[in-house]
Records
---
Amino acid sequence: MNSDTKTLSAELSKRNIRPSYQRIKVLDYLIKNQFHPTADQIFTGLQSEIPTLSKSTIYNTLNTFIEAGLVKTLNIEDNETRYDIIIDTHGHFKCEECGTIFNFNINIDSLTTEGLTGFKAIDKNIYFKGICPKCLLNINQDENERKENVL
Ligand SMILES: [Zn+2]
Ligand SMILES: [Zn+2]
Protein backbone atom coordinates (compact mmCIF):
# COMPACT_ATOMS: atom_id res chain seq x y z
CA MET A 1 0.00 0.00 0.00
CA ASN A 2 1.34 3.37 -0.98
CA SER A 3 1.35 5.73 1.97
CA ASP A 4 0.71 9.21 0.60
CA THR A 5 -2.29 10.92 2.14
CA LYS A 6 -4.37 10.74 -1.02
CA THR A 7 -3.94 6.99 -1.40
CA LEU A 8 -4.64 6.36 2.29
CA SER A 9 -7.71 8.54 2.16
CA ALA A 10 -9.00 6.66 -0.89
CA GLU A 11 -8.27 3.34 0.82
CA LEU A 12 -10.44 4.36 3.78
CA SER A 13 -13.25 5.76 1.63
CA LYS A 14 -13.30 2.55 -0.38
CA ARG A 15 -14.15 0.72 2.84
CA ASN A 16 -16.78 3.25 3.89
CA ILE A 17 -14.57 4.75 6.57
CA ARG A 18 -14.65 8.52 6.75
CA PRO A 19 -11.01 9.53 6.12
CA SER A 20 -10.43 11.83 9.09
CA TYR A 21 -6.95 13.23 9.70
CA GLN A 22 -6.42 10.97 12.72
CA ARG A 23 -7.55 7.83 10.93
CA ILE A 24 -5.19 8.57 8.05
CA LYS A 25 -2.35 9.08 10.52
CA VAL A 26 -3.04 5.77 12.31
CA LEU A 27 -3.15 3.91 8.99
CA ASP A 28 0.04 5.65 7.88
CA TYR A 29 1.75 4.64 11.13
CA LEU A 30 0.75 1.00 10.71
CA ILE A 31 2.07 0.90 7.16
CA LYS A 32 5.37 2.52 8.09
CA ASN A 33 5.88 0.55 11.31
CA GLN A 34 5.27 -3.07 10.46
CA PHE A 35 6.59 -4.46 13.72
CA HIS A 36 3.08 -5.27 15.00
CA PRO A 37 2.75 -2.33 17.39
CA THR A 38 0.46 -2.26 20.41
CA ALA A 39 -2.15 0.51 20.76
CA ASP A 40 0.17 2.18 23.28
CA GLN A 41 3.05 2.19 20.82
CA ILE A 42 0.85 3.72 18.12
CA PHE A 43 -0.31 6.35 20.60
CA THR A 44 3.23 7.20 21.67
CA GLY A 45 4.40 7.27 18.06
CA LEU A 46 1.73 9.76 16.97
CA GLN A 47 1.41 11.86 20.12
CA SER A 48 4.04 14.45 19.16
CA GLU A 49 2.53 14.89 15.71
CA ILE A 50 -1.08 15.06 16.93
CA PRO A 51 -1.13 16.62 20.41
CA THR A 52 -4.95 16.37 20.60
CA LEU A 53 -4.86 12.60 20.10
CA SER A 54 -6.38 10.44 22.83
CA LYS A 55 -5.96 6.76 23.53
CA SER A 56 -9.65 6.14 23.04
CA THR A 57 -9.37 7.60 19.53
CA ILE A 58 -6.62 5.09 18.84
CA TYR A 59 -8.74 2.19 20.10
CA ASN A 60 -11.84 3.37 18.23
CA THR A 61 -9.85 3.82 15.03
CA LEU A 62 -8.25 0.39 15.35
CA ASN A 63 -11.63 -1.23 15.95
CA THR A 64 -13.04 0.52 12.88
CA PHE A 65 -10.10 -0.77 10.84
CA ILE A 66 -10.56 -4.32 12.15
CA GLU A 67 -14.26 -4.34 11.32
CA ALA A 68 -13.43 -3.11 7.82
CA GLY A 69 -10.86 -5.88 7.36
CA LEU A 70 -7.99 -3.43 7.05
CA VAL A 71 -6.10 -4.55 10.14
CA LYS A 72 -5.78 -7.83 12.03
CA THR A 73 -5.15 -8.34 15.70
CA LEU A 74 -2.40 -10.55 16.90
CA ASN A 75 -2.44 -12.16 20.35
CA ILE A 76 0.85 -13.94 20.80
CA GLU A 77 0.99 -12.98 24.45
CA ASP A 78 -2.22 -13.17 26.49
CA ASN A 79 -1.75 -9.73 27.99
CA GLU A 80 -1.16 -7.65 24.89
CA THR A 81 -2.92 -7.10 21.62
CA ARG A 82 -0.81 -6.13 18.66
CA TYR A 83 -1.98 -4.81 15.32
CA ASP A 84 -0.97 -6.11 11.92
CA ILE A 85 -1.50 -4.24 8.68
CA ILE A 86 -0.66 -7.34 6.62
CA ILE A 87 -3.95 -9.17 6.43
CA ASP A 88 -2.84 -11.93 4.07
CA THR A 89 -2.05 -15.14 5.91
CA HIS A 90 1.54 -15.20 7.08
CA GLY A 91 3.55 -16.70 9.88
CA HIS A 92 4.96 -14.89 12.90
CA PHE A 93 8.22 -15.44 14.68
CA LYS A 94 8.65 -13.83 18.07
CA CYS A 95 12.17 -13.28 19.30
CA GLU A 96 12.19 -13.92 23.03
CA GLU A 97 15.32 -11.81 23.48
CA CYS A 98 14.31 -8.51 21.86
CA GLY A 99 10.55 -9.06 21.67
CA THR A 100 10.34 -8.29 17.95
CA ILE A 101 7.69 -10.15 15.99
CA PHE A 102 8.84 -10.95 12.46
CA ASN A 103 6.66 -11.87 9.51
CA PHE A 104 7.43 -14.81 7.30
CA ASN A 105 5.72 -16.30 4.29
CA ILE A 106 4.10 -19.66 4.63
CA ASN A 107 1.74 -21.62 2.48
CA ILE A 108 -0.74 -22.46 5.21
CA ASP A 109 -3.03 -24.40 2.88
CA SER A 110 -0.26 -26.88 2.11
CA LEU A 111 0.10 -27.87 5.77
CA THR A 112 -1.20 -31.30 6.56
CA THR A 113 -3.64 -31.48 9.43
CA GLU A 114 -4.82 -34.73 10.88
CA GLY A 115 -7.89 -35.10 13.03
CA LEU A 116 -9.71 -32.04 11.70
CA THR A 117 -11.92 -33.70 9.13
CA GLY A 118 -15.30 -31.99 9.16
CA PHE A 119 -14.03 -28.87 10.93
CA LYS A 120 -14.33 -25.43 9.38
CA ALA A 121 -11.30 -23.27 10.15
CA ILE A 122 -12.07 -19.57 10.55
CA ASP A 123 -8.60 -18.39 11.44
CA LYS A 124 -5.24 -20.06 10.95
CA ASN A 125 -2.20 -18.81 12.81
CA ILE A 126 1.37 -19.97 12.74
CA TYR A 127 3.47 -18.73 15.64
CA PHE A 128 7.11 -19.54 16.16
CA LYS A 129 9.09 -18.42 19.17
CA GLY A 130 12.82 -18.33 19.46
CA ILE A 131 15.79 -16.06 18.93
CA CYS A 132 16.34 -13.84 15.90
CA PRO A 133 19.68 -13.85 14.00
CA LYS A 134 20.72 -10.49 15.45
CA CYS A 135 20.18 -11.64 19.05
CA LEU A 136 21.84 -14.98 18.33
CA LEU A 137 24.90 -13.10 17.16
CA ASN A 138 24.92 -11.01 20.36
CA ILE A 139 24.57 -14.10 22.52
CA ASN A 140 27.46 -15.80 20.71
CA GLN A 141 29.61 -12.71 21.06
CA ASP A 142 28.87 -12.52 24.79
CA GLU A 143 29.85 -16.16 25.14
CA ASN A 144 33.08 -15.62 23.25
CA GLU A 145 33.93 -12.68 25.47
CA ARG A 146 33.23 -14.73 28.56
CA LYS A 147 35.52 -17.48 27.29
CA GLU A 148 38.25 -14.92 26.63
CA ASN A 149 37.89 -13.64 30.16
CA VAL A 150 38.34 -17.14 31.54
CA LEU A 151 41.63 -17.51 29.70
ZN1 LIG B 1 15.89 -10.58 18.70
ZN1 LIG C 1 2.35 -10.00 10.77
Note: Residues 36, 84, 86, 90, 92, 103 surround zinc ion (ligand 2) (CB under 6 Å).
---
Amino acid sequence: MGIFDYVRLKIGFRFYSRRQIQAYQFKTIQRNFALAQAKAPYYEALNDGKGLLSWGDFFRLPIMDKNILMNHFDEINTVGLKRTEVEAFACDKETRKDYTGYYKDRYVVGLSSGTSGNKGLYLTDKALTKKLPFVFLARSGLSLKYLPFKIMFCLRVFSQGFADINSPLIKLNYVSTMTPIDHVIREINRQKINILMAPPSFVRLLISHREEIKSTFSCIVCYAEVLTKEEKEKFKTFFHCQVIEIYQASEGQIASACKEGNLHINEDLVFVEMMDEKGQVVDQSGVPGQLVVTNLVNTIQPLFRYRMNDWVVLKDSCPCGSHYRVLDHIIGRQDDVMMFMTNDHRLQHVFPDLISRWIITYSNDIREFKVIQSEANGMGLMIDCLSGMPSESFVEGLYDRLVKEFSAFDIQPQLKIFVTQITIPQDNSKYKRFEVRKADHHELDLGS
Ligand SMILES: [Zn+2]
Protein backbone atom coordinates (compact mmCIF):
# COMPACT_ATOMS: atom_id res chain seq x y z
CA MET A 1 0.00 0.00 0.00
CA GLY A 2 1.64 3.16 -1.14
CA ILE A 3 0.47 6.71 -1.44
CA PHE A 4 -0.42 6.00 -5.08
CA ASP A 5 -2.96 3.32 -4.11
CA TYR A 6 -4.38 5.65 -1.51
CA VAL A 7 -4.97 8.41 -4.04
CA ARG A 8 -6.43 5.98 -6.60
CA LEU A 9 -8.90 4.64 -4.02
CA LYS A 10 -9.90 8.13 -3.05
CA ILE A 11 -10.23 9.63 -6.54
CA GLY A 12 -12.01 6.65 -8.08
CA PHE A 13 -14.51 6.86 -5.30
CA ARG A 14 -15.20 10.54 -5.69
CA PHE A 15 -15.46 11.13 -9.41
CA TYR A 16 -16.65 8.08 -11.36
CA SER A 17 -20.15 8.37 -12.85
CA ARG A 18 -22.63 5.46 -12.66
CA ARG A 19 -21.84 4.61 -16.30
CA GLN A 20 -18.11 4.59 -15.70
CA ILE A 21 -18.57 2.45 -12.61
CA GLN A 22 -20.68 -0.11 -14.51
CA ALA A 23 -18.29 -0.20 -17.44
CA TYR A 24 -15.39 -0.83 -15.08
CA GLN A 25 -17.33 -3.55 -13.28
CA PHE A 26 -18.28 -5.38 -16.46
CA LYS A 27 -14.76 -5.27 -17.87
CA THR A 28 -13.41 -6.67 -14.60
CA ILE A 29 -16.04 -9.39 -14.34
CA GLN A 30 -15.40 -10.38 -17.96
CA ARG A 31 -11.66 -10.69 -17.35
CA ASN A 32 -12.07 -12.56 -14.05
CA PHE A 33 -14.60 -14.94 -15.60
CA ALA A 34 -12.24 -15.75 -18.49
CA LEU A 35 -9.52 -16.52 -15.97
CA ALA A 36 -11.93 -18.66 -13.91
CA GLN A 37 -12.96 -20.62 -17.04
CA ALA A 38 -9.33 -21.30 -17.84
CA LYS A 39 -8.19 -22.22 -14.34
CA ALA A 40 -11.20 -23.41 -12.32
CA PRO A 41 -13.07 -26.48 -13.68
CA TYR A 42 -16.37 -25.48 -12.06
CA TYR A 43 -16.68 -22.48 -14.38
CA GLU A 44 -15.47 -24.17 -17.56
CA ALA A 45 -18.91 -25.25 -18.80
CA LEU A 46 -20.89 -22.25 -17.58
CA ASN A 47 -22.37 -19.97 -20.27
CA ASP A 48 -21.91 -22.92 -22.69
CA GLY A 49 -18.18 -22.70 -22.18
CA LYS A 50 -18.06 -19.25 -23.74
CA GLY A 51 -16.83 -16.01 -22.21
CA LEU A 52 -19.24 -13.29 -21.05
CA LEU A 53 -20.18 -10.96 -23.90
CA SER A 54 -22.82 -8.88 -22.16
CA TRP A 55 -24.44 -8.16 -18.81
CA GLY A 56 -27.21 -10.50 -20.06
CA ASP A 57 -24.74 -13.41 -20.12
CA PHE A 58 -23.68 -12.52 -16.62
CA PHE A 59 -27.21 -12.33 -15.22
CA ARG A 60 -27.93 -15.79 -16.63
CA LEU A 61 -25.16 -17.35 -14.53
CA PRO A 62 -26.57 -19.51 -11.74
CA ILE A 63 -26.58 -18.09 -8.21
CA MET A 64 -23.95 -19.65 -5.95
CA ASP A 65 -24.11 -20.21 -2.21
CA LYS A 66 -22.02 -21.64 0.58
CA ASN A 67 -23.15 -25.24 -0.08
CA ILE A 68 -22.04 -25.03 -3.71
CA LEU A 69 -18.77 -23.39 -2.68
CA MET A 70 -17.98 -26.08 -0.13
CA ASN A 71 -19.12 -29.01 -2.33
CA HIS A 72 -17.06 -27.80 -5.29
CA PHE A 73 -14.26 -26.14 -3.37
CA ASP A 74 -11.47 -27.84 -5.34
CA GLU A 75 -12.98 -26.85 -8.72
CA ILE A 76 -13.81 -23.26 -7.74
CA ASN A 77 -10.34 -21.99 -6.87
CA THR A 78 -7.88 -21.11 -9.64
CA VAL A 79 -4.72 -22.33 -7.92
CA GLY A 80 -5.46 -26.02 -7.41
CA LEU A 81 -6.02 -25.95 -3.64
CA LYS A 82 -7.81 -28.92 -2.07
CA ARG A 83 -10.61 -28.51 0.45
CA THR A 84 -9.41 -31.35 2.69
CA GLU A 85 -5.97 -29.80 3.02
CA VAL A 86 -7.14 -26.22 3.47
CA GLU A 87 -9.73 -27.35 6.01
CA ALA A 88 -7.18 -29.35 7.97
CA PHE A 89 -4.88 -26.32 7.96
CA ALA A 90 -7.64 -23.99 9.24
CA CYS A 91 -8.83 -26.41 11.95
CA ASP A 92 -5.30 -27.08 13.10
CA LYS A 93 -4.55 -23.35 13.39
CA GLU A 94 -7.77 -22.86 15.31
CA THR A 95 -7.04 -25.68 17.74
CA ARG A 96 -3.48 -24.53 18.35
CA LYS A 97 -4.48 -20.83 18.47
CA ASP A 98 -1.74 -20.13 16.02
CA TYR A 99 -3.04 -17.49 13.65
CA THR A 100 0.28 -16.49 12.17
CA GLY A 101 1.60 -17.45 8.79
CA TYR A 102 -0.08 -18.09 5.50
CA TYR A 103 -1.25 -21.22 3.82
CA LYS A 104 1.54 -22.34 1.50
CA ASP A 105 3.13 -19.01 2.44
CA ARG A 106 0.75 -17.16 0.14
CA TYR A 107 -2.92 -17.44 1.02
CA VAL A 108 -5.07 -16.18 3.84
CA VAL A 109 -7.66 -18.76 4.84
CA GLY A 110 -10.87 -17.30 6.24
CA LEU A 111 -13.24 -19.45 8.21
CA SER A 112 -16.81 -18.38 8.70
CA SER A 113 -19.76 -19.95 10.41
CA GLY A 114 -22.28 -17.70 8.67
CA THR A 115 -25.98 -18.12 9.25
CA SER A 116 -26.24 -21.84 8.92
CA GLY A 117 -23.93 -23.50 11.38
CA ASN A 118 -21.61 -25.26 8.97
CA LYS A 119 -18.41 -23.57 7.98
CA GLY A 120 -17.35 -21.76 4.85
CA LEU A 121 -13.72 -21.57 3.76
CA TYR A 122 -12.58 -18.46 1.94
CA LEU A 123 -9.25 -17.89 0.23
CA THR A 124 -7.56 -14.57 -0.41
CA ASP A 125 -4.16 -13.66 -1.69
CA LYS A 126 -2.08 -12.26 1.17
CA ALA A 127 -1.08 -9.19 -0.88
CA LEU A 128 -4.74 -8.27 -1.28
CA THR A 129 -5.55 -8.77 2.40
CA LYS A 130 -2.82 -6.37 3.41
CA LYS A 131 -4.39 -3.58 1.38
CA LEU A 132 -7.90 -3.84 2.74
CA PRO A 133 -7.61 -1.97 6.06
CA PHE A 134 -6.62 1.09 4.03
CA VAL A 135 -9.69 1.17 1.85
CA PHE A 136 -11.68 2.54 4.77
CA LEU A 137 -9.05 5.21 5.46
CA ALA A 138 -9.08 6.41 1.86
CA ARG A 139 -12.87 6.69 1.82
CA SER A 140 -13.64 7.89 5.31
CA GLY A 141 -12.62 11.48 4.66
CA LEU A 142 -10.47 11.18 7.76
CA SER A 143 -8.35 14.29 7.87
CA LEU A 144 -4.66 13.86 7.20
CA LYS A 145 -3.97 16.18 10.12
CA TYR A 146 -4.41 13.09 12.31
CA LEU A 147 -1.27 11.58 10.81
CA PRO A 148 0.47 9.51 11.95
CA PHE A 149 -2.48 7.15 12.25
CA LYS A 150 -1.95 5.02 15.33
CA ILE A 151 -4.53 2.34 14.93
CA MET A 152 -5.65 -0.30 17.39
CA PHE A 153 -7.38 -3.05 15.51
CA CYS A 154 -9.45 -5.35 17.72
CA LEU A 155 -9.85 -8.61 15.92
CA ARG A 156 -12.33 -11.15 17.10
CA VAL A 157 -9.97 -13.77 15.87
CA PHE A 158 -6.37 -12.95 15.11
CA SER A 159 -5.93 -12.91 11.41
CA GLN A 160 -2.90 -13.00 9.21
CA GLY A 161 -1.79 -10.01 7.25
CA PHE A 162 -2.56 -7.34 9.79
CA ALA A 163 0.30 -7.77 12.21
CA ASP A 164 3.14 -6.31 10.28
CA ILE A 165 2.10 -2.81 9.32
CA ASN A 166 4.48 -0.39 10.91
CA SER A 167 5.29 2.47 8.58
CA PRO A 168 6.19 6.01 9.69
CA LEU A 169 2.72 7.33 8.86
CA ILE A 170 0.59 4.35 9.71
CA LYS A 171 1.04 2.01 12.65
CA LEU A 172 -1.40 -0.80 13.07
CA ASN A 173 -1.43 -2.69 16.37
CA TYR A 174 -3.78 -5.51 16.90
CA VAL A 175 -5.31 -7.04 20.00
CA SER A 176 -7.74 -9.87 20.41
CA THR A 177 -11.21 -8.94 21.54
CA MET A 178 -10.64 -11.49 24.32
CA THR A 179 -7.85 -9.37 25.82
CA PRO A 180 -8.90 -8.22 29.32
CA ILE A 181 -10.22 -4.65 29.21
CA ASP A 182 -7.64 -3.15 31.61
CA HIS A 183 -4.86 -4.48 29.41
CA VAL A 184 -6.49 -2.98 26.31
CA ILE A 185 -6.76 0.41 28.02
CA ARG A 186 -3.10 0.27 29.08
CA GLU A 187 -2.12 -0.33 25.45
CA ILE A 188 -4.37 2.46 24.17
CA ASN A 189 -2.71 4.89 26.57
CA ARG A 190 0.84 3.64 26.09
CA GLN A 191 0.70 3.78 22.29
CA LYS A 192 -1.35 6.98 22.14
CA ILE A 193 -3.90 5.28 19.90
CA ASN A 194 -5.93 7.80 17.86
CA ILE A 195 -7.96 5.40 15.74
CA LEU A 196 -9.85 2.52 17.28
CA MET A 197 -11.18 -0.25 15.05
CA ALA A 198 -13.45 -2.64 16.91
CA PRO A 199 -16.81 -4.40 16.78
CA PRO A 200 -19.60 -2.31 18.39
CA SER A 201 -19.92 -4.81 21.24
CA PHE A 202 -16.30 -4.15 22.15
CA VAL A 203 -16.69 -0.35 22.04
CA ARG A 204 -19.66 -0.81 24.37
CA LEU A 205 -17.39 -2.55 26.87
CA LEU A 206 -14.98 0.40 26.74
CA ILE A 207 -17.68 2.96 27.54
CA SER A 208 -17.77 2.09 31.22
CA HIS A 209 -13.99 2.64 31.37
CA ARG A 210 -13.78 5.89 29.44
CA GLU A 211 -12.41 7.80 32.46
CA GLU A 212 -9.28 5.64 32.33
CA ILE A 213 -8.66 6.26 28.64
CA LYS A 214 -6.07 9.04 28.32
CA SER A 215 -5.70 9.02 24.52
CA THR A 216 -8.03 11.09 22.37
CA PHE A 217 -9.62 9.17 19.55
CA SER A 218 -10.01 10.97 16.24
CA CYS A 219 -12.11 8.21 14.91
CA ILE A 220 -13.75 4.94 15.87
CA VAL A 221 -14.27 2.45 13.10
CA CYS A 222 -16.85 -0.26 13.70
CA TYR A 223 -17.15 -3.49 11.77
CA ALA A 224 -18.16 -7.15 12.04
CA GLU A 225 -21.53 -6.49 13.64
CA VAL A 226 -24.53 -4.34 12.91
CA LEU A 227 -24.07 -0.81 14.24
CA THR A 228 -27.45 0.75 14.97
CA LYS A 229 -28.00 4.48 14.43
CA GLU A 230 -28.71 4.97 18.14
CA GLU A 231 -25.51 3.24 19.13
CA LYS A 232 -23.48 5.25 16.65
CA GLU A 233 -24.77 8.48 18.23
CA LYS A 234 -23.99 7.13 21.68
CA PHE A 235 -20.37 6.35 20.76
CA LYS A 236 -19.98 9.83 19.26
CA THR A 237 -21.22 11.43 22.46
CA PHE A 238 -19.08 9.34 24.78
CA PHE A 239 -15.82 9.58 22.90
CA HIS A 240 -16.29 12.98 21.18
CA CYS A 241 -15.11 11.69 17.84
CA GLN A 242 -16.20 10.60 14.43
CA VAL A 243 -17.71 7.09 14.27
CA ILE A 244 -17.62 5.29 10.95
CA GLU A 245 -18.64 1.87 9.85
CA ILE A 246 -17.12 -0.61 7.45
CA TYR A 247 -18.92 -3.65 6.22
CA GLN A 248 -16.51 -6.48 5.68
CA ALA A 249 -17.55 -10.08 5.12
CA SER A 250 -15.63 -13.23 4.31
CA GLU A 251 -16.92 -12.82 0.77
CA GLY A 252 -15.36 -9.40 0.35
CA GLN A 253 -15.13 -5.84 1.55
CA ILE A 254 -18.70 -4.84 0.81
CA ALA A 255 -18.98 -1.22 1.94
CA SER A 256 -17.21 1.58 3.76
CA ALA A 257 -18.29 4.91 5.18
CA CYS A 258 -17.63 8.26 3.51
CA LYS A 259 -16.92 11.59 5.18
CA GLU A 260 -20.68 12.12 5.60
CA GLY A 261 -20.78 8.90 7.58
CA ASN A 262 -22.87 7.08 4.95
CA LEU A 263 -22.06 3.51 4.05
CA HIS A 264 -21.21 3.25 0.32
CA ILE A 265 -20.90 -0.05 -1.51
CA ASN A 266 -17.27 -0.52 -2.61
CA GLU A 267 -18.25 -0.72 -6.27
CA ASP A 268 -14.63 -1.11 -7.34
CA LEU A 269 -14.13 -4.18 -5.13
CA VAL A 270 -17.50 -5.95 -5.36
CA PHE A 271 -20.45 -6.00 -7.73
CA VAL A 272 -23.60 -6.16 -5.63
CA GLU A 273 -27.07 -7.38 -6.63
CA MET A 274 -30.01 -7.49 -4.28
CA MET A 275 -32.88 -9.96 -4.37
CA ASP A 276 -36.08 -10.62 -2.50
CA GLU A 277 -37.02 -14.08 -1.17
CA LYS A 278 -38.50 -15.06 -4.57
CA GLY A 279 -35.23 -14.21 -6.35
CA GLN A 280 -36.64 -11.02 -7.92
CA VAL A 281 -34.28 -8.07 -8.27
CA VAL A 282 -34.65 -5.34 -5.66
CA ASP A 283 -33.30 -1.95 -6.68
CA GLN A 284 -35.49 0.59 -4.91
CA SER A 285 -34.44 2.43 -1.79
CA GLY A 286 -36.07 1.40 1.44
CA VAL A 287 -36.84 -2.18 0.37
CA PRO A 288 -34.85 -5.02 1.97
CA GLY A 289 -32.89 -7.26 -0.37
CA GLN A 290 -30.58 -10.21 0.16
CA LEU A 291 -27.04 -9.58 -1.01
CA VAL A 292 -25.70 -11.43 -4.03
CA VAL A 293 -22.06 -10.53 -4.45
CA THR A 294 -19.49 -10.85 -7.20
CA ASN A 295 -16.01 -10.19 -5.93
CA LEU A 296 -14.03 -8.06 -8.40
CA VAL A 297 -10.59 -8.38 -6.85
CA ASN A 298 -10.28 -11.96 -5.64
CA THR A 299 -9.04 -14.10 -8.51
CA ILE A 300 -7.78 -16.92 -6.27
CA GLN A 301 -11.29 -18.04 -5.34
CA PRO A 302 -13.48 -16.20 -7.84
CA LEU A 303 -17.12 -16.00 -6.75
CA PHE A 304 -19.74 -14.89 -9.25
CA ARG A 305 -23.27 -14.10 -8.06
CA TYR A 306 -22.68 -15.51 -4.58
CA ARG A 307 -25.67 -15.31 -2.27
CA MET A 308 -24.75 -14.12 1.21
CA ASN A 309 -26.98 -14.46 4.25
CA ASP A 310 -27.11 -10.73 4.87
CA TRP A 311 -29.99 -8.47 3.93
CA VAL A 312 -29.53 -4.76 3.32
CA VAL A 313 -31.63 -1.70 2.56
CA LEU A 314 -30.50 0.93 -0.01
CA LYS A 315 -30.75 4.67 0.42
CA ASP A 316 -31.21 7.23 -2.39
CA SER A 317 -27.97 9.18 -2.59
CA CYS A 318 -25.34 10.89 -0.51
CA PRO A 319 -24.34 14.57 -0.38
CA CYS A 320 -20.64 13.60 -0.57
CA GLY A 321 -21.05 13.33 -4.35
CA SER A 322 -19.89 9.74 -4.81
CA HIS A 323 -22.00 7.62 -7.15
CA TYR A 324 -21.18 4.44 -5.30
CA ARG A 325 -24.56 3.20 -4.05
CA VAL A 326 -25.42 3.92 -0.43
CA LEU A 327 -26.67 1.42 2.15
CA ASP A 328 -29.19 2.75 4.60
CA HIS A 329 -28.61 -0.14 6.93
CA ILE A 330 -27.69 -3.79 7.22
CA ILE A 331 -30.22 -6.20 8.63
CA GLY A 332 -28.26 -8.67 10.66
CA ARG A 333 -28.49 -11.16 13.43
CA GLN A 334 -27.75 -9.60 16.78
CA ASP A 335 -26.22 -12.27 18.93
CA ASP A 336 -25.65 -11.59 22.61
CA VAL A 337 -22.16 -11.41 24.06
CA MET A 338 -21.72 -13.99 26.85
CA MET A 339 -20.25 -13.05 30.22
CA PHE A 340 -18.53 -15.61 32.45
CA MET A 341 -16.89 -15.46 35.88
CA THR A 342 -13.22 -16.48 35.89
CA ASN A 343 -11.74 -18.62 38.65
CA ASP A 344 -10.32 -15.48 40.24
CA HIS A 345 -13.77 -13.82 40.13
CA ARG A 346 -13.19 -11.49 37.24
CA LEU A 347 -15.98 -10.96 34.72
CA GLN A 348 -14.76 -12.02 31.29
CA HIS A 349 -16.64 -11.38 28.06
CA VAL A 350 -16.66 -14.09 25.39
CA PHE A 351 -17.71 -13.19 21.86
CA PRO A 352 -20.17 -15.49 20.07
CA ASP A 353 -17.83 -15.65 17.11
CA LEU A 354 -15.14 -17.35 19.16
CA ILE A 355 -17.48 -20.01 20.56
CA SER A 356 -18.77 -20.58 17.01
CA ARG A 357 -15.29 -21.35 15.81
CA TRP A 358 -14.67 -23.84 18.61
CA ILE A 359 -17.84 -25.65 17.63
CA ILE A 360 -17.53 -25.62 13.84
CA THR A 361 -13.91 -26.71 13.86
CA TYR A 362 -14.78 -29.71 16.04
CA SER A 363 -16.70 -31.59 13.36
CA ASN A 364 -18.43 -31.20 10.01
CA ASP A 365 -21.27 -33.32 11.33
CA ILE A 366 -22.66 -30.36 13.30
CA ARG A 367 -25.25 -28.87 10.93
CA GLU A 368 -26.61 -26.17 13.19
CA PHE A 369 -26.29 -25.12 16.81
CA LYS A 370 -27.67 -22.75 19.38
CA VAL A 371 -26.17 -21.48 22.62
CA ILE A 372 -28.26 -20.28 25.54
CA GLN A 373 -26.96 -18.82 28.77
CA SER A 374 -29.67 -18.76 31.39
CA GLU A 375 -27.64 -18.70 34.58
CA ALA A 376 -24.29 -17.26 35.58
CA ASN A 377 -21.47 -19.44 34.27
CA GLY A 378 -23.93 -21.88 32.78
CA MET A 379 -24.04 -22.59 29.09
CA GLY A 380 -26.49 -24.80 27.25
CA LEU A 381 -25.44 -25.90 23.79
CA MET A 382 -27.91 -27.47 21.41
CA ILE A 383 -26.49 -29.26 18.40
CA ASP A 384 -28.26 -30.60 15.33
CA CYS A 385 -26.19 -33.24 13.55
CA LEU A 386 -26.27 -34.41 9.94
CA SER A 387 -25.97 -37.99 11.15
CA GLY A 388 -29.06 -37.58 13.35
CA MET A 389 -27.89 -39.09 16.61
CA PRO A 390 -24.14 -38.77 17.17
CA SER A 391 -22.32 -41.22 19.43
CA GLU A 392 -21.74 -40.58 23.11
CA SER A 393 -18.01 -40.23 22.53
CA PHE A 394 -18.69 -37.57 19.86
CA VAL A 395 -20.59 -35.46 22.39
CA GLU A 396 -17.99 -36.09 25.10
CA GLY A 397 -15.24 -35.00 22.71
CA LEU A 398 -17.06 -31.74 22.00
CA TYR A 399 -17.60 -31.22 25.74
CA ASP A 400 -13.89 -31.73 26.41
CA ARG A 401 -12.93 -29.39 23.59
CA LEU A 402 -15.11 -26.58 24.95
CA VAL A 403 -13.93 -27.10 28.53
CA LYS A 404 -10.35 -26.89 27.28
CA GLU A 405 -10.99 -23.70 25.27
CA PHE A 406 -12.75 -21.97 28.18
CA SER A 407 -10.06 -22.98 30.63
CA ALA A 408 -7.51 -21.07 28.54
CA PHE A 409 -9.39 -17.96 29.73
CA ASP A 410 -9.57 -19.24 33.28
CA ILE A 411 -13.28 -20.01 32.97
CA GLN A 412 -14.97 -23.21 34.13
CA PRO A 413 -18.53 -23.04 32.83
CA GLN A 414 -21.26 -25.50 33.72
CA LEU A 415 -21.75 -26.87 30.31
CA LYS A 416 -24.63 -28.97 29.04
CA ILE A 417 -24.92 -30.32 25.52
CA PHE A 418 -28.22 -31.41 23.99
CA VAL A 419 -28.70 -33.14 20.67
CA THR A 420 -31.86 -31.90 19.01
CA GLN A 421 -33.40 -30.65 15.78
CA ILE A 422 -33.00 -26.94 15.12
CA THR A 423 -35.07 -24.97 12.63
CA ILE A 424 -34.05 -21.45 11.67
CA PRO A 425 -36.99 -19.11 11.08
CA GLN A 426 -37.39 -17.58 7.59
CA ASP A 427 -36.60 -14.11 8.84
CA ASN A 428 -33.18 -14.86 10.21
CA SER A 429 -32.54 -11.28 11.33
CA LYS A 430 -34.75 -12.01 14.34
CA TYR A 431 -32.97 -15.24 15.12
CA LYS A 432 -30.27 -15.38 17.74
CA ARG A 433 -27.81 -18.20 17.74
CA PHE A 434 -26.37 -16.90 21.00
CA GLU A 435 -28.87 -15.85 23.55
CA VAL A 436 -28.55 -14.66 27.12
CA ARG A 437 -31.75 -15.14 29.06
CA LYS A 438 -32.63 -13.51 32.32
CA ALA A 439 -31.92 -15.45 35.50
CA ASP A 440 -35.56 -16.28 36.20
CA HIS A 441 -35.73 -18.44 33.08
CA HIS A 442 -34.19 -21.73 34.04
CA GLU A 443 -35.84 -23.84 31.39
CA LEU A 444 -33.84 -24.34 28.26
CA ASP A 445 -36.03 -24.48 25.24
CA LEU A 446 -35.59 -23.69 21.59
CA GLY A 447 -38.61 -21.49 21.27
CA SER A 448 -39.29 -22.61 17.71
ZN1 LIG B 1 -21.15 9.66 0.82
Note: The first strand starts at residue 107 and ends at 112.
